[in-house]
Amino acid sequence: MEPRFVTDEAALMAGKTLVVADLHIGIEFEYYKAGIKIPSNVGKMEERLVKLTERSGAERLLILGDVKHRVPGVTRQELREIPEFLSEISKRIPTEIIPGNHDGNLKDLVPENVRIHSSKGFLEGKVYFTHGHAWPSPDFLKADYVLVGHEHPQIEVRDRIGYRFTEQVWVKANLSKKRIEKRYKTKTKRLPELIILPRFNPLSGGISFNRGLTDLEKAHKLFHTGLGPLVKCSDHPNSKIYLLDGTFLGKLKNLC
User: Could you give all domains of the chain from N- to C-terminal order, each with its CATH number?
Assistant: First the structure.
């Protein structure tokens, strides 16, 4: 069951499971507090997911964390939009969630037919699913692939006169055998490949991976999160970078 990117979308297929991460429903309230009025994006995300389930033939939807945005607590917008969003989606396709670092109190907003897993994630076949903000259970060592969100990866491009644009990307990376063995106090013959999903909500912003690991850590601290432990244990410079349309851009060290 090798995960397959869905062309032109921040989503992938793992067998018959459609996987997305980082919806950040309710983020518009943060913009509003900063004096920026943006209409809610939740309806558009629902439409995208409905079309993706039909297009892909998925039999299950798995959200890898950060369904909601506010930390800590819950906003009125989240109280209103999250139950309705999950109720509508789960009527169309069985829906499951692995909580992320933004998902405190999420269980109070989730319909009974939506399953919530442990925040450590779970192993299914040869794929381990988790949000990425915390260490996974040792079961992830049995996988061929470990899928995470949390990082909101993108690359940043500047031209000679200073114009700048960013593009969301997929990241594939190898994990450090030495660091993983030290953490889990075990010897391993091989480790799963790390795949970092782009954010599904385009309004939630991203971190430019080609700034370098030190700058990445600084940028994450500004958002009070921090790089996930598996990303810190990866061979960052040699990670492979792909655009959402599947274009392979090369190794990260050549894009910095």
Answer: 4-254 (3.60.21)
Q: Which of 108, 178, 189, 174 is nearest to 141 (CA)?
A: 189
Give whole-number Cα distances, 168 to 87, 102, 196, in Å: 28, 21, 11
pLDDT tens-place string over residues 189-210: 899 999 999 999 999 988 888 8
Give the Cα separation of 64 and 151 in Å (integer).
12
Separation between Cα atoms, residue 118 and residue 46, nearest integer Å: 24
Tens digits of per-residue pLDDT, 89-141? 999 999 999 999 999 999 999 999 999 999 999 999 999 999 999 999 999 99
Q: Pick the closest to residue 66 from 11, 104, 22 (CA basis).
A: 22
Alpha-carbon distance 35 to 254, whole Å?
A: 38
Both tokens of residue 191?
A: 């480790």
**Where do runs of H (alpha helix) occur along the chain?**
28-33, 42-56, 76-92, 177-184, 213-222, 229-232
Q: What residues have CB less than 8 Å from 217, skipping those under 6 apart?
A: 226, 227
Q: What does the block give as tokens for 129?
A: 């699913």
Question: Which tokens hold the place of 49?
Answer: 């997911």
